[in-house]
Design brief:
This is Transposase. This protein is an alpha+beta fold. The protein has one domain (8-96). The chain has helices spanning 29-41, 66-74, and strands at 8-11, 15-24, 77-86. The protein has a three-stranded mixed β-sheet with strand order 1-2-3, covered by helices on one side. The model has no long low-confidence stretch (mean pLDDT 87).
């Protein structure tokens, strides 16, 4: 599996949180978050350099990826969080509203 080394992994009693950190330009915050999410939750077997279009994401569901393999191995829920920060400290507000 190509994408199998996330930056941060938290183990709790009930779940595992996988986080991937990225510093990006402000205009690319959403793109960076999308590609990090797709690498670890949709398709991690080969290097993913470009975003999978939304209309094609369904073709990758169920394929081998880090989150799926960790969920199966540990028998716990696994949550993926892309931690994307702009090069001047900006955050993408849409991702952090909850």
């Amino acid at each position: 599996m190509h994408h199998s080394r996330p930056d941060i992994v938290f183990y709790t009693k009930s779940k595992i949180v996988v986080a991937e950190l990225c510093i990006s330009s402000y205009k690319n915050l959403e793109t960076a978050a999308t590609i990090k999410t797709q690498r670890y939750t949709l398709f991690g077997k080969k290097e993913l350099k470009d975003i999978i279009p939304k209309e094609k994401e369904h073709e990758y569901i169920g394929r081998n990826n880090f989150v799926k393999s960790l969920r199966l191995r540990e028998n716990k829920d696994v949550e993926f969080i892309p931690l994307i920060i702009g090069n001047m400290g900006e955050l993408n507000e849409k991702r952090y509203q909850d």
